[in-house]
Write a structure and sequence with these properties.
InterPro entries: HAD-like_sf, HAD_sf. The chain has 47 residues and is α+β, with helices and mostly antiparallel strands. It is built from one helix and two strands; from the N terminus they run βαβ. It has one domain. The chain is elongated, with a radius of gyration of 11 Å. The model has no long low-confidence stretch (mean pLDDT 82).
Length: 47
């Protein structure tokens, strides 16, 4: 697609999705309707 991973902002609704995005050097928009917000810190949450 020609877009650098650092220029992407995926929407993740699972811990594994968040870990994959973080490993790729992306920011993350966490969708918490399916996952409790308290599980986000384990996936690399940044405030």
């Amino acid at each position: 697609m020609g877009v650098a991973s650092g220029d992407c902002l995926p929407v993740a609704d699972s811990r594994n999705g968040m870990l994959a995005a973080r490993a790729a050097g992306m920011g993350i928009l966490g969708y918490t309707a399916l996952m409790p917000p308290d599980r986000l810190p384990a996936a690399g949450r940044r405030d």
